[in-house]
Amino acid sequence: MSNYVVAIDQGTTSTRAIIFDKAGSIISVGQKEHEQIMPQAGWVEHDAAEIWQNTQEVIGIALGRADLTRHDIASIGITNQRETTVVWNKHTGDPVYNAIVWQDTRTQAIVDRLAADGGTDRFKEVVGLPLATYFSGTKIAWILENVEGARAAADAGDLLFGTTDSWVLWNLTGGPEGGVHATDVTNASRTLFMDLATLEWREDILETFGVPKSMMPAIKSSSEVYGVAEDSSLLRETPISGILGDQQAATFGQAAFEAGESKNTYGTGCFLIFNTGEEIVHSKNGLLTTVGYKLGDGPTHYALEGSIAVTGSLIQWLRDQLGIIESAPDVEELSASVPDNGGVYIVPAFSGLYAPYWRPDARGAIVGLTRYANKGHIARAALEAVAFQTRDVLDAVNADAGVDLTELKVDGGMVANNALMQFQADVLGVPVVRPVVAETTALGAAYAAGLAVGFWSGLGELSANWQEDRRWEPAMEQAEQDRQLRLWRKAVTKSMDWVDEDVR
Ligand SMILES: Nc1ncnc2c1ncn2[C@@H]1O[C@H](COP(=O)(O)OP(=O)(O)O)[C@@H](O)[C@H]1O
Ligand SMILES: O=P(O)(O)OC[C@H](O)CO
């Protein structure tokens, strides 16, 4: 009897395999970090072969820890860091270049070139996204323009593109021997190439970017059987039946299935998704329009998204580059060593500013420094920056949706930080709510995979699994909230207009 579902969560910093039971409870976890390769300022790469190796290992670890075999597993779901771009040779299975990660800004010159004709919003009406380095399209173009032999191989039909969901799926289903080359609608909606209304690749846009259609994966729903794991896999013959980009997966795992529901995930970056149901809503306030989910032949659910590039990675930066903490959770003690931020504000525009500003010319800034400031204030300002950025995005959601969200469902690695969650409620002025299962990303992929094979009966059963763990009520005086936001927004202006011919 197959009583469990496995979710593979291929994230920016690590790859996890998590086994869930029918109640949506975690049975076991396997996790491995992979190397962050940063050859130049603004460049971030991953070794796709390492990611595939880690994927196989974490599946083995999760199965081993739970003492389960493939016979216990009903199906496999995949969720992934979105936009990160892998291009590989379909005959050998070898990537032609390291995966170019979503945070990487090397393609700004390609963005500028394409924007010269029609501006950064030239494709937005069709694909929901502005032209920006964030999305896969310019990353594929960069590989074809800069990696020796790539253009000719692509034109000959030898190369495949995929985000890491496609890369894992293709390898898991046999690689060069019959691997399935597909992605789901949520990941496809992050490329700049998918028409949101038809859910098909736009040949005219592919042509504008110089990307042959033969490289592109088939676009499937988020919940259907794509293929089965190959014979050499520990999970051989198990169907792979769910794929969602990680932020959409977290929304699904939070059971935010209906229009008006939302969540904010605090990981490497922060991503607030607001479900707009079957309606494609175009933002007037700097949000992206994206696909939320689509189950088999069912209707497409769309969403507005506020993407913040740097949140958890700012804490990693305190740890790895400044060395003022030894591990990420140490930031709690360091920030609690001071009563307030001492007037210090950090704007972590390491990859420019994403939502709602979309300013590639911004770079990181620490402002308000005096001789009084110490590392406790820096730690505190880093955490507060996470909450302030979320406030900016929530304001944009409220303005676009014409509603005021009355609470915010949260998840991700940073929500373990109680002081951050309290400050978040304070600067939002609405309660912040954390579910029992904070691994909502993996849970959402498991749900999609389980639904496709009848492991779960429907959305009602999944909603019943959602349980509140903790709620933070706002406690800050309005005048203090106003003062904090005024200073934060002043700090944001200081980070802008920094990139020029001397600084990229
Ligand atoms: N106690 C904490 N306080 C603040 N940040 C934390 C804490 N624990 C972990 N983090 C941050 O959370 C992030 C990990 O969250 P996770 O959801 O696993 O990220 P991802 O899925 O993007 O890899 C890391 O960037 C880390 O710096
Ligand atoms: O891997 P995460 O959790 O940092 O998520 C990355 C996002 O999908 C990027 O769009």
Automatic annotation (TrEMBL):
SUPFAM superfamilies: Actin-like ATPase domain. InterPro entries: ATPase_NBD (IPR043129), Carb_kinase_FGGY (IPR000577), Carb_kinase_FGGY_CS (IPR018483), FGGY_C (IPR018485), FGGY_N (IPR018484), Glycerol_kin (IPR005999). Keywords: ATP-binding, Glycerol metabolism, Kinase, Nucleotide-binding, Transferase. It comes from the Bacteria. The keyword Hydrolase does not apply. Sn-glycerol 3-phosphate binds at residues 12, 82-83, 134, 246. Pathway: Polyol metabolism; glycerol degradation via glycerol kinase pathway; sn-glycerol 3-phosphate from glycerol: step 1/1. Coiled coil: none annotated. Key enzyme in the regulation of glycerol uptake and metabolism. Catalyzes the phosphorylation of glycerol to yield sn-glycerol 3-phosphate. This is Glycerol kinase. It comes from Leucobacter komagatae. The gene is glpK.
